[in-house]
Specification:
With 465 residues, the chain is an alpha/beta fold. The protein is built from 14 helices and 18 strands.
């Protein structure tokens, strides 16, 4: 009779070389419980601090991120393969979030006074809830963590983090940075755990909210478990964002920004430009220039300045996107460039462009999380918007048009998505809300909105006799 032994350790792998970086051990259930209890104890003290007092610590975290910038950026590149220059940009965005939050939270979380119907006095407070559990992905190893932790720490909550296993080193380094900046012990805890342990945390009586960035499948599972436990959730679940190239678009600008939007972070970005919908009047010119630019991209070591496209974060992710490309071709798509695995070491996939993309293909229906672009021809501007909205997703998108006023009106009135970029591509801005609709999830982060997702909006009333 044979027995199986549970795997207690795992390794992180450098996707550029395919070689091991480090080895980690999963926490025991008793260690997890001890961490949760310490998190609760820390919360009970932290919640009594004023927003201004918390803001000083948040500002210090932003400064400390800069002190660790070189080490943190190099580690992110080693663990998931993003270009080193983009890892440096990620650290800067994280510091920017801390600065914005520290400066604006006192206004965003300030008590509001209301006059009641009978002349009495009402006060609305944004009171902290408790422990917020975050399940985060690997593609922005620092930003994804900072995005939810800083908003909730300033609100007075404490944080538990389950990070993707392949970026465990980054999670632990962030913990060191928070500690060095003076965040009280227990307020930010990294849980190196397995899925079964994660499910138990969602059900834990001291955990008050759950936030996830991941796939729609993961979102469904987490929302179901949290809903059964009557826990609030915020879900950011990716997308297959459409970028519209309208009749009057500046094609050279559209190509430049679309290339950036497709390959930024090696194409592994939830709000990356993924479907490019060009009208008949401009399609041929856009296709020709877009394919030429994609073919010219330099694939290589993400730490070299000349590299424009690094490896996929994991071997299984590289294999999945190749399968999506193959299935799309089997169903009628045409490869204009790329589409084949490379022979070099590491988990590289070339910049790939697919044409003849139609409904029923992964390139049209699903999220392609890597450097693969889908080109779609629309009859006219109205048809382009129809195609853009013909998706179960709705996180981001873009419109290229020389008539900026018209483009903004289209974005406001017709584009069924959470974020729209006009004649540009961007990622996150601390002062603007971040989130989506439909299968891209619900809830908002950034822009003050994230500070209020996990608070008790409390009514205190003195009714006049």
């Amino acid at each position: 009779m044979s027995t199986t032994t549970k795997q207690n350790t795992f390794k992180t792998i450098n996707p550029t070389t395919g070689k091991e970086i480090s080895s980690y051990e999963y926490m025991t259930d008793s260690q997890v419980e001890e961490t949760i209890q310490k998190s609760q104890e820390a919360f009970l003290k932290w919640k009594t601090k004023t927003v201004e007092e918390r803001a000083k610590v948040i500002a210090a975290i932003g400064e400390e991120l800069q002190n660790y910038k070189k080490e943190l950026a190099a580690l992110m590149t080693d663990e998931m393969g993003k270009l080193l220059k983009q890892s440096n940009q990620e650290v800067d965005i994280c510091s920017g979030i801390c600065k914005y939050t520290a400066e604006n939270a006192p206004k965003e979380l300030k008590n509001e006074e209301r006059t009641l119907l009978n002349g009495g006095k009402g006060v609305i407070t944004y009171s902290p809830m408790g422990i917020i559990y975050g399940i985060q992905p690997w593609n922005y190893p620092s930003y994804q963590v900072i995005r939810y932790t800083i908003a909730n720490l300033i609100a007075g909550n404490s944080i538990l983090l389950k990070h993707a296993s392949n970026v465990t080193g980054t999670a632990k380094l962030l913990k060191d940075i928070f500690d060095t900046a003076g965040l009280p012990s227990g307020l930010f805890s990294v849980l190196v755990i397995e899925h079964e342990q994660s499910n138990a945390i969602i059900n834990h009586k001291l955990v008050r909210g759950v936030t996830l960035t991941g796939s729609p499948v993961a979102g469904e599972k987490i929302a179901e478990k949290a809903g059964k436990a009557l826990k609030k959730t915020v879900l950011e679940l990716g997308s297959n964002d459409a970028y519209l190239i309208l009749d009057d678009a500046d094609i050279d600008l559209a190509v430049e920004k679309s290339i950036t939007g497709r390959i930024y972070n090696n194409g592994e970005t939830c709000i990356a430009a993924k479907r490019f919908v060009a009208t008949e009047d401009v399609y041929d010119e856009f296709e020709e220039k877009f394919v030429k630019a994609m073919k010219a991209l330099k694939l290589g070591d993400p730490k070299l300045d000349e590299t424009e496209l690094g490896p996929m974060a994991r071997e299984d992710l590289r294999d999945k996107i190749h399968e999506q490309v193959q299935e799309s071709v089997e169903k009628g798509a045409k490869i204009l460039c790329g589409g084949e695995k490379t022979n070099r070491e590491g988990f590289f996939y070339p910049a790939t462009v697919l044409a003849n993309v139609t409904e029923g293909q992964p390139a049209y229906d699903d999220e392609l999380f890597g450097p693969v672009a889908s080109l779609i021809k629309a009859k006219d501007n109205e048809d382009a918007m129809r195609i853009a909205n013909d998706s179960r997703f709705g996180l981001g998108g873009g419109i290229f048009s020389k008539d900026e006023k018209k483009a903004i009106e289209l974005a406001e009135q017709h584009f069924d998505t959470g974020m729209v970029f006009i004649n540009s591509f961007g990622t996150a801005e601390p002062m603007m809300p971040f989130g989506g609709v439909k299968d891209s999830g619900y809830g908002r982060e950034h822009g003050g909105f994230g500070m209020k997702e996990f608070v008790n909006v409390k009514s205190i009333m003195r009714i006049k006799d």
